[in-house]
Amino acid sequence: MEQELYITRKENWFDSDPKHDISMEEWIACVKMDPEMRLDNFSEVKLENGETFQYDNPGTAVWVGHSENDIKTTFDFLSGNITVRNPTSSAIEKMKHIAFKLGAKLQGDEGEVFATEDTLVNEPQQVLAEEAKPGALKKLWWKVQHSIFTSPSGK
Q1: Rounded to the nearest 10 degrees, how much is the dihedral formed by the CA atoms of 43, 5, 82, 66?
Q2: Which of 11, 36, 2 is closest to 113 using CA atoms?
Q3: Which of 14, 31, 70, 100 could form a disulfide with 37 if both were Cys (CB 3.0 to 4.6 A apart)?
């Protein structure tokens, strides 16, 4: 089943209002600051006949710090969002990390939002504000500790 995930600041990744877009400049700066990422500005597709078709795609970056089955994860810049098609679980963790750095969220095709480091760090404050049940904060602390002290690659 095909899945596409989006790093976005918009309410919904498909919203057209540009005031919440991630700018190309922000994305390029983020990629340049991450030693695991490489800005390529092109995409490649393997065709059924075995040939490779390459096309210009400004803002396209590759996660070179990790590959699964010799397949690199490609991050596309599209309409103020960063998108990855059919991400692995490791790529999803990397996307969460990038979303946190960009002050954005990770959202799926159907609008579902994936927790990032930022949402996990803010959860205990929300729980305290709502006068949580005993033990609730302890559970959330485990999530915070797990997300903060686990690298994006899961090691």
Answers
A1: -60
A2: 11
A3: 31
Span 12-62, pLDDT tens digits: 999 998 999 999 999 999 999 999 999 999 988 889 999 999 889 899 999
Task: Indicate if 99 and 136 belong to the same structural domain.
Answer: no
Task: State the Cα–Cα distance between residues 59 and 81, nearest whole angstrom.
Answer: 10
Phi-psi region of 21 (alpha: psi -120 to 50; beta: other; left: phi over 0): beta
**Residue 141: what are its φ and ψ, rounded to 5°?**
-60, -40
CA distance 153 to 90: 6
User: Which structural domain, as residue segments, surrounds residue 33?
Assistant: 4-114
What is the pTM (predicted TM-score) of this model? Answer: 0.71
The encoded tokens of residue 130 equal: 């709502």
Q: How far is CA 145 from CA 81, 103, 121, in A?
A: 28, 20, 9
Residues 85 and 119 in one domain: no
Same-domain status, 102 and 121? no
Give the up-direction half-sphere exposure of residue 85: CA atoms within 13 A in the CB hemisphere: 10
Residue 145: count other Cβ atoms within 10 Å of its Cβ: 11
Clarify whether residues 8 and 51 are in a common domain.
Answer: yes
